[in-house]
């Protein structure tokens, strides 16, 4: 059974600081997805990582995938208040299903 | 973009009544999914469909049934609603292999009283 773990579950940080969210998963998969969710809203796709070593960047966010270590990271550079949200990683497994991590609630303080 | 829509957006129902949630897509994607989101549990898969009339159970399928009679629509039915089914329900769609990811609907907030 595929398990996906994120840490930390909650992150409070100052504007301008850098931080990394980690996503570990338990079985082999070469597809990993990052989503953002604002309170009361749906999930917004951030990154689709399809191969080992994949790295994608959008603004202050950068995601990477190491399939051998079964680890993905979401790095935040010089955080701003607008990045406050909950971030989920999700892994594709057999049958094209997604299994989600528990989410990381990010709060960026001025 | 309105490639996927869910209805209703909000619903309050009484314990023991049947409830049906609808997911409609205009992307002609093969795969459709129903997830529920609860505090402390993230998103958990209820049922999914890999084609018309082809469905299978997910992690938390007890008390739920689904139907897909055409590509565009995927219905989730709570056969006899219970308070433990109070949740936010999300529908998602994906193409084969999901190279472009999964697209989620806006969600249905269901309260069972």
Topology:
The complex is a heterodimer of chains A (110) and B (113).
Chain A lengths: L3 E4 L2 E5 L4 E7 L6 E6 L5 E7 L5 E4 L2 E6 L4 E6 L8 E9 L3 E4 L3 E6 L1
Parallel strand pairs in A: 2-11
Antiparallel strand pairs in A: 1-3, 3-8, 4-5, 4-9, 6-7, 7-8, 9-10, 9-11
Chain B lengths: L3 E4 L2 E4 L5 E7 L5 E8 L3 E10 L2 E4 L6 E7 L2 E6 L8 E8 L8 E2 L3 E5 L1
Parallel strand pairs in B: 2-11
Antiparallel strand pairs in B: 1-3, 3-8, 4-5, 4-9, 5-6, 7-8, 9-10, 9-11
What can you see in these coordinates?
The complex is a heterodimer of chains A (110) and B (113). By secondary structure, chain A is mainly β. Chain A is built from no helices and eleven strands. Chain A has strands at residues 4-7, 10-14, 19-25, 32-37, 43-49, 55-58, 61-66, 71-76, 85-93, 97-100, 104-109. In chain A, a hairpin with a 2-residue loop joins strand 6 and strand 7 (61-66). The model of chain A has no long low-confidence stretch (mean pLDDT 93). Chain B has no helices and eleven strands. Chain B has strands spanning 4-7, 10-13, 19-25, 31-38, 42-51, 54-57, 64-70, 73-78, 87-94, 103-104, 108-112. The model of chain B has no long low-confidence stretch (mean pLDDT 94). Chain A binds chain B through residues 31, 33, 35, 41-43, 45, 48, 50, 88, 90, 92, 95-103, and chain B through 31, 33, 35, 40-45, 48, 50, 56, 58, 90, 92, 94, 96-107.
């Amino acid at each position: 059974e595929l398990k996906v773990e994120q840490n930390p579950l909650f992150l409070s940080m100052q504007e301008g600081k850098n931080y990394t969210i980690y996503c570990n998963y338990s079985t082999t998969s070469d597809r990993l997805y990052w989503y953002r969710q604002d309170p009361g809203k749906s999930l917004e796709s951030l990154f689709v990582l399809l191969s080992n070593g994949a790295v994608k960047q959008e603004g202050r966010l950068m995601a990477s995938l190491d399939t051998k270590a079964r680890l993905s990271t979401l790095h935040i550079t010089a955080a701003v208040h607008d990045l406050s949200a909950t971030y989920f990683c999700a892994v594709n497994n057999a049958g094209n299903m997604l299994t989600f991590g528990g989410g990381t609630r990010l709060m960026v303080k001025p | 973009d309105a490639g996927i829509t869910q209805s209703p957006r909000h619903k309050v129902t009484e314990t023991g009544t049947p409830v049906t949630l609808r997911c409609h897509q205009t992307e002609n994607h093969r795969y459709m999914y129903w997830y529920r989101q609860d505090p402390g549990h993230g998103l958990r898969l209820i049922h999914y469909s890999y084609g018309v009339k082809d469905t299978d159970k997910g992690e938390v399928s007890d008390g739920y049934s689904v139907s897909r009679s055409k590509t565009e629509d995927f219905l989730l039915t709570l056969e006899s609603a219970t308070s433990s089914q109070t949740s936010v329900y999300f529908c998602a769609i994906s193409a084969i292999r999901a190279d472009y990811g999964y697209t989620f609907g806006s969600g249905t907030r269901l309260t069972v009283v």
